[in-house]
């Protein structure tokens, strides 16, 4: 059985930042990239709000930069998915791809969260070409244009009001006849003149061409069909934290996000740390994920030094 000091699970900004810091601390980390090498950013086109890239950079190019930096300092980056893990005692026992067994003295969980989509074929076709699950990430590209947001909760209302500040018109597509958002968020939406709420409507198809999204076809519960010309289509129906393998072993909140000690990356199990979107249901930004990856690496280093 292979024995390692630091196991990092996940290869987004949190995972690679953890890897850079633990590598430089001579902890010889092993990072498994998981089901989506590079994380959610690889599905994003242009990134303009990450410090250090004044001209912007594509998500895949930025993740490749982070990967190279981690490799430069000696991180052992591997393809593979953690299919089983036992956190009941140290060293932690881990199984990769149902066959390779590892014993890890510490674990940093950076498995992220996956945005929920409607499941439409057209939605998948234009993902990264006008279809997005993050208005604060991609909204800037649609300034002074018409866009649509799907959802009726606080997140959808927040994204709609944010987009309304930079876009010409925002359509909020809500399948129910009411908003689930807080009263304050509802009032903000209803008091924003360039937001049009389409109650009791469902998205039937995202329309587009070789350049990207050009419109959306919606259908009301009464069966009335309408085509709306838009350039951006934003999903705000929630995220699903990738924590299935940790259920029953780490303390999770009601939504499935890993709970950490406030101000740290420490989970309910000593020697296990969490960073990035897997423990952050609020911000979900590359820069906050990277920052929490640094925190996890430093917490992990101090933990190992104290052993």
Write the layout of secondary structure elements.
Elements: E1 2-9, H1 13-24, E2 30-32, E3 46-47, E4 57-58, H2 59-72, E5 76-78, E6 82-86, E7 92-96, E8 100-109, E9 113-115, H3 121-125, E10 131-132, H4 135-138, E11 146-150, H5 154-164, E12 169-173, H6 183-190, E13 195-198, E14 201-209, E15 212-220, E16 225-229, E17 232-235, E18 239-241, E19 272-274, H7 286-306
Parallel strand pairs: 1-2, 1-8, 2-5, 8-19, 10-17, 11-12, 11-17, 12-13
Antiparallel strand pairs: 3-4, 6-7, 7-8, 9-18, 14-15, 15-16
Helix pairs in contact: 1-2, 1-7, 5-6
Describe the protein in words.
The chain has about 300 residues and is an alpha/beta fold. It has 2 domains: about 1-115 and about 240-305, FAD/NAD(P)-binding domain; about 115-235, FAD/NAD(P)-binding domain, CATH 3.50.50. It is about 25% helix and about 30% strand. It has 7 helices and 19 strands. Strands 1, 2, 5, 6, 7, 8 and 19 form a 7-stranded mixed β-sheet that branches. A 5-stranded parallel β-sheet has the order 10-17-11-12-13, covered by helices on one side. A 3-stranded antiparallel β-sheet has the order 14-15-16. Strand 7 and strand 8 (about 100-110) form a beta hairpin. The longest helix has 21 residues, at about 285-305. The model has no long low-confidence stretch (mean pLDDT about 95).
């Amino acid at each position: 059985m292979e024995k390692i000091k630091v196991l990092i699970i996940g290869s987004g900004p949190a995972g690679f930042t953890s890897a850079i810091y633990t590598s430089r601390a001579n902890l010889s980390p092993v990072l498994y990239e998981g089901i989506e090498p590079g994380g959610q950013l690889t599905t994003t086109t242009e990134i303009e709000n990450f410090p250090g890239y004044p001209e912007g950079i594509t998500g895949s190019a930025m993740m490749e930069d982070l990967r190279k930096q981690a490799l430069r300092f000696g991180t052992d980056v591997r393809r593979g998915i953690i299919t089983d893990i036992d956190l009941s005692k140290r060293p932690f026992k881990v199984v990769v791809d149902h066959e390779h067994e590892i014993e890890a003295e510490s674990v940093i969980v950076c498995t992220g969260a996956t945005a929920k989509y409607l499941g439409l074929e057209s939605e998948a076709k234009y993902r990264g070409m006008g279809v997005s699950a993050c208005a604060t990430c991609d909204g800037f590209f649609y300034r002074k244009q018409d866009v649509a947001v799907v959802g009726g909760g606080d997140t959808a209302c927040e994204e709609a009001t944010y987009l309304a500040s930079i876009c010409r018109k925002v359509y909020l597509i809500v399948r129910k006849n009411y908003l689930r958002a807080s009263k304050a968020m509802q009032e903000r939406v209803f008091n924003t003149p360039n937001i049009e709420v389409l109650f009791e409507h469902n998205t039937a198809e995202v329309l587009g061409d070789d350049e990207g999204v050009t419109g959306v076809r919606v259908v009301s519960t009464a069966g009335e069909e309408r085509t709306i010309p838009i350039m951006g289509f934003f999903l705000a129906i929630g995220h699903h934290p990738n924590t299935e393998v940790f259920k029953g072993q780490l303390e999770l909140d009601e939504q499935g996000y890993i709970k950490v000690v406030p101000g740290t990356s420490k989970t309910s199990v000593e020697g296990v740390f969490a960073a990035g979107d897997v423990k952050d249901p609020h911000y979900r930004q590359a820069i906050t994920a990277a920052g929490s990856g640094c925190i996890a690496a430093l917490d992990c280093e101090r933990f190992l030094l104290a052993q």
